[in-house]
Amino acid sequence: MTEFWLISAPGEKTCQQTWDKLMTATTRTNNISTNSKFNIPDLKVGTLDVLVGLSDELAKVDSFVESVVKKVAQYMTDVLEDSRDKVQENLLANGVDLVTYVTRFQWDMAKYPIKQSLKNISEIISKQVSQIDNDLKARASAYNNLKGNLQNLERKNAGSLLTRSLADIVKKDDFVLDSEYLITMLVVVPKTNYADWQRTYETLAEMVVPRSTNLLFEDQDSGLFSVTLFRKAIDDFRHKARENKFTVRDFQYNEEEMKADKEEMTRLSTDKKKQFGPLVRWLKVNFSEAFIAWIHIKALRVFVESVLRYGLPVNFQAMLLQPNKKNMKKLREVLYDLYKHLDSSAAAIIDQSAMDIPGLNLSQQEYYPYVYYKIDCNLLDFK
């Protein structure tokens, strides 16, 4: 399970007692979750008005930062196209895997100084992650353009003889070049029609050079034949060829153009390789930054919500629970029994969500008598 429940409850006589109570209820008798203390430093409380406004603001920042974390992770999977297993080892926070980072969370005092107001810390995070988001858009756009152009060229050099580029198939010797009267044309003939071609090609138009056809290349279905004729017979030849299910390709042998195409492909391929390393490094660093910022936002939310619910002086224990998948419902019930005394109105909400009342959308809201936020470390949506 990569899902965590970040909860808080008010300190009993001491916060340690709150922790011990939770441990007894969830692990000592029935092992329904794996728990760790979630350390939040002494942040500046500020006024009640500010806290209420901040509570709404932080909810928006939370979903924005989460969306950026997921975008960076998803783009990492797109870039590491051939090695999806490597994706996971690049998605780290502070050099450790996400579960380890979350369960051993320590507030980063250097990045988010706790002498600042809560609002300032929230703004620092918001700005930082917006910058990552903008950079990601620019970098992804440049890399995707490059990749798209390369794929288009590669596509041109693959596929059926009817559509693919012929530049890497034909040679200079296959053509009559620089003749005022003669021209070499390339014709795609289905394999089943080879005999028809050999029998009829000289008579498809009046001025076809006898015995001038050669098979230059074959794929699964067809062959590419060259044939030489007089220039003035081109239209007639095309028309008659079509009637006989032979396809004349529009192709003029131009060494310079072919060389330019090849160089373009080499250039794009080299550019892609050059950008790949720095891009993966950037994604790795900024995934870590965004994920760390996200968990700090969760910490801020727990702090603000706990002060609003449990009052001052600040006295609560934040705890991180990793539910055992089979026992999630049981864990909810245990937590409810443990904390229902904190908020009698939550009991009503839990009862109502059990029976869906038409017009009341309460079952969609996650409200419990204790402070609760979900953290899901499974950020990848492999296609």
Describe this entry's structure for a reader.
There is one protein chain. With 383 residues, the protein is an alpha+beta fold. It has 10 helices and 8 strands. A hairpin with a 3-residue loop joins strand 4 and strand 5. Helix 1 packs antiparallel against helix 9 and helix 2 packs parallel to helix 5 (118-156). The two termini are 20 Å apart.
Shape by Cα distribution: elongated
Largest sheet descriptor: 4 strands, antiparallel
Give the % helix. 40-55%
Beta-strand percentage range = 5-15%
Helix count from the secondary structure assignment: 10
Query: Could you say which structural class the secondary elements and strand pairing correspond to?
Result: alpha+beta
Number of strands: 8
Q: Mean pLDDT, as a whole number?
A: 91
Residue ranges: pLDDT <50 for 5 or more in a row? 351-364
Distance between the termini: 20 Å
Strand order of the largest sheet: 2-7-1-8
Give the ordered list of helices and strands: EHEHHHHEHEEHEHEHHE
Radius of gyration: 34 Å
